[in-house]
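Handout, section 3.2

Students often ask what a structure token actually looks like in practice. Rather than define it abstractly, here is a full record for PSA aminopeptidase. The first block is the sequence as you would receive it.
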Amino acid sequence: PQARAGIISTVEVLKVMEAFVNEPNYTVWSDLSCNLGILGTLLSHTDFHDDIQAFVRDVFSPIGDRLGWDPKPGEGHLDALLRGLVLGKLGKAGHKATLEEARRRFKEHVEGKHILSADLRSPVYVTVLKHGDSSTLDTMLKLHKQADMQEEKNRIERVLGAISQPELIQKVLTFALS
């Protein structure tokens, strides 16, 4: 908040964020994620966009590696929330291994081979959409149509904004208005 008010520099804020790299607390990561999201939005159409994405990948990679994709024995609810948050952040930022795994799991989910757990659906959906094409969007809209639970329909509706190709944004808007 102080950086947004112009009191301290963005560089100082980023240095503070880096200090939390070994933090296991969900609330801390949620706050970091939120602030980096705001910063990412502010820098989205500037020369710093790629730098902030690289920073996100650097900061979130260690915790992403530690959490992995699958629940561990004795894990609590906050660990599942943290996993979803971290994988979503890494995926949106274009972290290569996360993107590849999200695409693999999405494909298996769509084919009915291995259904994604509820806590992994949003991060996987966001990742494949952000870096997807028109066929990814079509698949997502098909999943929406086939979903029998309102919760799943809502989940898909929430992630459609991740689509980044300008020509597909119109398709999302048309869907949203229908």
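Discussion prompt for tutorial groups: The mean pLDDT is 87. How would you have guessed this from the sequence alone?
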